[in-house]
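Table S2 (continued). Query chain:
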Amino acid sequence: MNFHIVINGVFFDDEQEIRTQVESLLMDDAHLEAVVGDLVEAATGNQPSEFINQWTEREPGLCSCLAFEPVVARPQEPAPETTELAARPLDRQLATVAATGLMSGLEDHVLFPEDGLMVLNAENPPDLNEAGEIVRRLFEVGNSAKNLDEFGKWNMGSFLDSCFNLYGDNNFSVSQFVEETDENYNTTVTCLATYRAFAVRRYTGLSFTHHKEALYAKFPGLDDEQRRELMHRLLRISERFSLSCAKQRKLFSYARNLGAEQITHLETSLGFPQAAITDPLHQVERVSNPEITNSVDLVERITLREANRNYLFKFQDTWYHYRGSSETLPVGASEIICTDNWS
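Corresponding output:
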């Protein structure tokens, strides 16, 4: 209908309800069917004045109680641009929506690029106080749920990195915002360091904790570049077999005890192509004739090779000798040296 039929101030669009209302107001019951038919036709065909002119003399009681109100079409809201968002995993959808919602009043100062990680809007950046408020709100994303906490930490690292890029190290300090938000300084710095370490590539299916522990894993005797390459090789294995954090620690312990050469042998057993073995960032899409095909066999392999070894380590400025597994070295041990390979 293009018009609502209003009888005694009440809106009616259903024909049966209109019939019931009209029947009690007619002077001549014989007019019922004709009146109802004309009413519906008038409301549908934009002819209310014709109905009034036609029936006022014959049914003045009805017409005195009758009115027609135009149906106001609600403006069609544009469809939200959700195609890109819906293509992401559910936890990223929720985290992006949560972060977007929490930016109310500050949304013009941030952007969400294709990967969904929030960055500072360089064309309309927040001032330092507003940037601090954004950091505070991002902690709320992290507190909402485990999965949101994961993505919230990536967001924290991404946003802080974009702030450093714009303001510079001299003007922007993580510590000033940690003081304002009353949050742990190490947590914030870890988010930033982990994001930067894996800005080139993050490993699908592995949590922020997987990445963080890999970043801070120690491999005595390797320089920074060698350590970084070995870290990516191990994470690639962890990603392929969807290892838990505990099983990934076994893998890293295996590499720490036996060295990078054994990881090359392990990659060969996994059927990795030569291009992947020589390039730590090479994504392994296909393997050929692997000896190890599942995580159970992988964990058995790296667990069997884990054995008691001799270590020297420094703890509170004192050197100690220890024989056992690297996993049981005291927390806080530094400058760890395996002496089994000494001749």
